[in-house]
What does this fold into?
Amino acid sequence: MILALAGGVGGAKLATGLARALPPSELMIVVNTADDFEHLGLHISPDLDTVMYNLAGVHDPELGWGIANETWNFMAALKMLGGETWFQLGDRDLATHLERTRRLKAGEGLTSVTQALHRSLGVQHAIVPMSDDSVRTIVHTESGRLAFQDYFVRLKCEPAVKRIEYEGAARARPSAAFSATLGDERLRGIVICPSNPFLSVAPILAIPGVREKLQSRQVPVIAVSPIVGGRAIKGPAAKLFQELGKEASVTEVARFYRGLVDKLAIDEVDRPSMSAIRDLGIEPVVARTVMSSDADKELLAREVVSACVPGLS
Ligand code: FO1
It folds into this structure.
């Protein structure tokens, strides 16, 4: 079994590739939930939904989030009423948030709600939240303390970031399925998707016991760099590295994951950084890390799985 840690659009792309390469019994995808928030009375879980829509094949490939061929009548009506429209909720996507919120309010946990949504959309692979407890990313910026979606969507990642906090992480427990996978004797490798290290992966690692469990496992851990040739494939990763006083490079990604990963998949253009990565005790694996098509996603998934467990994919 392979455990994948994912968040954001890069995470959803590799998760899709992994789901194409491995049967449901051999893959567990654990997703960041620190981007979750309450909005218009609804519980929104952007990363869980992005992975779910991608695996269900209904995602919007242009936006990277939401559902393809979406309609926006709800947003237009809300705008007419003078409501809050900075966070776009499509009509079909809205149903997901309504149903999730209804079930959570009725007392179900986030893992159970997520499973029910997956069943309805025909997703067979296991995608679970990192935790059923509330963890919220707070971004401390030049303009003050910002809730994650305020920073990310409303302010378009413009304020310079000084520090990032994962509120609630210290009290959170990994979801039962995540915990069980970490202790599962069938676990053969761990893949950290090309998700934003600070925004998508760090919240997962901030849950007490997770980093230690990952480190003490006797299975290979491979991360895929979200930085290619000094730039982020999507999103603010490069900007964040710089604002936090680091260079946006695969070597800094390696430094971020030092002590946790055995291998780092980097793109062909980053070959010159191979020896610097090796000096950090991490084995670089050159792969095609930019995923445009489903075939790219599957190819990269097969490469990272076989770098972890030769012969499995
Ligand atoms: N991202 C945006 O940039 N603008 C939006 O209006 C927006 C709405 C949205 C609605 C539902 C959903 O599941 C995701 C949505 N996202 C939107 C994406 C999301 O905020 C980010 O991609 C993640 O939180 C970062 O991984």
User: Anything to note?
Assistant: The pocket of FO1 is lined by residues 7-8, 35, 44, 46-47, 49, 65-66, 87-89, 93, 149, 152-153 (CB under 6 Å). DSSP finds 13 helices and 14 strands in the chain. The mean pLDDT is 96.
